[in-house]
Amino acid sequence: MSDQEWITVLMNDNDDTVISDKQRKILEAAIDTFSEKGYAASSTSEIAKKAGVAEGTIFRHYKTKKELLLAIVTPTIAKFIAPFFIKTFAKEVFENEYEHYDDFLRTVARNRLEFVKKHFPVLKIFIQEIAFHDELREPYQKLFTEHVFLKFKKIIEHFQEKGEIIKLPPETIMRMSAASIIGYILPRFLLFSNHEWDDEKEIEQIVEFIMYGISGKR
Amino acid sequence: MSDQEWITVLMNDNDDTVISDKQRKILEAAIDTFSEKGYAASSTSEIAKKAGVAEGTIFRHYKTKKELLLAIVTPTIAKFIAPFFIKTFAKEVFENEYEHYDDFLRTVARNRLEFVKKHFPVLKIFIQEIAFHDELREPYQKLFTEHVFLKFKKIIEHFQEKGEIIKLPPETIMRMSAASIIGYILPRFLLFSNHEWDDEKEIEQIVEFIMYGISGKR
Amino acid sequence: MSDQEWITVLMNDNDDTVISDKQRKILEAAIDTFSEKGYAASSTSEIAKKAGVAEGTIFRHYKTKKELLLAIVTPTIAKFIAPFFIKTFAKEVFENEYEHYDDFLRTVARNRLEFVKKHFPVLKIFIQEIAFHDELREPYQKLFTEHVFLKFKKIIEHFQEKGEIIKLPPETIMRMSAASIIGYILPRFLLFSNHEWDDEKEIEQIVEFIMYGISGKR
Amino acid sequence: MSDQEWITVLMNDNDDTVISDKQRKILEAAIDTFSEKGYAASSTSEIAKKAGVAEGTIFRHYKTKKELLLAIVTPTIAKFIAPFFIKTFAKEVFENEYEHYDDFLRTVARNRLEFVKKHFPVLKIFIQEIAFHDELREPYQKLFTEHVFLKFKKIIEHFQEKGEIIKLPPETIMRMSAASIIGYILPRFLLFSNHEWDDEKEIEQIVEFIMYGISGKR
DNA sequence: AATGAATGAGCCTTCATTCAT
DNA sequence: CATGAATGAAGGCTCATTCAT
């Protein structure tokens, strides 16, 4: 996909790309199954049964099982990284949409948490399968390093220059920020999804942690 | 397994449990294959070929494919958590083996990093498959919550009382500490294993980060 | 199966339950093979080849090899015992359809011989395998003891009261009658099927034998 | 085998042909297993386990699984038909060992019943497997038709000439006699072996039946 | 003589995919 | 479009048999 096409895809935030009822049922069933048993351990026949369609119908819409996987994962991941991708993203930051790094963090964290809440099964599939399918890695790798990553970098450098955050390599800052947020989100959904979580409070604590650590000294 | 049996297993730190040459080759081939393609997508015939044995030979040693998986993962995971499990672990901390929480962190991080360096393929299999196999979760779940987790908690509370670290719930402190360390280790091996890493320096930065965050204020 | 369902099955005397052409070929090939080599020694691949279908096709129609066995044996056995099962069976006897016990014997013998002639391969499978598969025994055991056996018993008692036959336990009378008939049918088909048999004459001799023995005295 | 060799085998009525302890255990385990699950469905590994020997040991004594089968069945069947085989058998009958056909029947029935009681598992294997293995049929076929059968025939003709029994073909008389006896023995051991049987009385009834039928008329 | 690890052919079954209807 | 019967390759696993020890 060219960048131009990506933008088209990414901006298209409505879920209702015209897909037939059967197609939707197939996707739902596939998400369910892949998420629960993993891609390789899921059979198309099981998915067909769960979707209430004939086995052949799946292959009418998706030439192969792998294409079905991509049809599930690709648009969701696209939407997941879309906000970091849009042209205005970095600009907003510099133009005082976010006065401080922690405002930025807070917003991103809330934002993405909301997204994960809505799309966890698909994201789980992505996380599980990315290690095994080049088709899942490649399209985002370039996208990520050339756009998302670069934008983050600029933002971090921006706040480093403002003296708000220390001058570790931006990659390191990014990694630590991301790890802290992901380190909440992942167990929250993967291990303790039925636990009651006060996300707002937790995010606040995470942001605090990222900024000031656990020593209590400022 | 009873706790007593666990201790026996965990303490048995020598890799040379008497296994035949063929058996070792099977395990190596299986680690290779599972790690690369995932458990479900790996075929026993492929493993056999890679190990240079007949397919039947695998099943002579491991009744089922899943048993082979467990034979690979179980002892490594056992050894991975063993240090946190031994009786003296918490005691050492209290008796000033570690004067400060960051000393403790540093040691654990170094320590486990070393382990991961040695056993990453197996750990990758574990991470990938734990979501799909109860047999992989169950044996460690109790062990973890009742021993490892409890010990960490005591340690954290110990340093909280000393006023070294803030009084967030110990679970939260733990999660943040762990996330920060894992957030380094995972990409280090999973995504950028061929990159040159100065682990010593990175660990230092992580510990700093955990203690004081990225704001630069103390 | 409930008794009601049994009746449905048993009465359904037409062989043309809608089965596809391939399905019929599979059944024929399976009967051939099971009958010739026994169930355990027959391979599904051989059956598939003989039937001219892919091996997978067998399993599309019959979930397991054992289900295939049952699909072959069950309906035939059902039809075999059906005549003794129908409501009117005993009644016909009492209402002078059969004036004497030997009339009754003659009819049953002729009747079942005809059936065996038509279905010997399947019956052979049944005889061979009944010892090893509960699924083959169970459905008929109750049916036999509660219906067939009871009806025979009544018939025998009927003729005992008429003074036509001696007052041994009906079970014994039954056993002797059955053994004499089976003792003809079994070798006739199992050992000397290519021999020319005058069934009508043989049956007459058997009935005579059952009634009067071999001493020649009346 | 030549007839001469047969005689040697048949006469050797002692079970203690010198076989090692292990060998005996193998035979016992094999009888158990074959009898319970059938030859084809029994695995040598299961037999080895049950016998408490290594798998290889079985094949040291019996080159193939089939040879093991024959080693079990052959001597028992030989012993089973031995009495009808010995030179004096027919002579005894003519020389008034048995004054009447029913004396003869009674003795044979008692005699063979006793044998079956002792060797039922092996006989069951024989019955089950004879249909599938030429090696089980061939050696006895000639033996049976040329010796046993002929002797029986003479005996029957002897009593026919004495006017004791009717002049049906001797084969028929034989078949009826045998069927009546087998028709008792088979269900007795195969279906109702735990039932309490008064064999003496039953045999008497069978002999009566064979001689005079069930009509009660003489 | 006895072992038991090793073999590789073959087993039953499942799977993704195709195609005539 | 949708179906579902059909495919045949591949899967995990078992088996009788061999052979070095």
What does this structure look like?
- The first copy, chain A, has 218 residues and is mostly helical.
- Chain A folds into two domains: 3-65, Homeodomain-like (Arc Repressor Mutant, subunit A, Orthogonal Bundle), CATH 1.10.10.60; 72-214, Tetracycline Repressor, domain 2 (Orthogonal Bundle).
- The first copy, chain A, contains ten helices and no strands.
- The first copy, chain A, is elongated.
- Chains A and B meet through α7, α9 and α10 of A and α7, α9 and α10 of B.
- The structure holds a DNA duplex (21 and 21 nucleotides).
Topology (elements, then pairings):
The structure is a homotetramer of 218-residue chains.
Chain A: H1 3-11, H2 21-37, H3 44-51, H4 55-61, H5 65-85, H6 88-94, H7 101-129, H8 134-161, H9 170-190, H10 199-212
Chain B binds a DNA duplex (21 and 21 nucleotides) through helix 4.
Q: What key phrases describe this protein's structure?
A:
Arc Repressor Mutant, subunit A, homotetramer, Tetracycline Repressor, domain 2, 218 residues, mainly alpha, DNA-binding, 10 helices, 0% strand
Quick summary:
Four copies of one chain form a homotetramer. With about 220 residues, the first copy, chain A, is mainly alpha-helical.
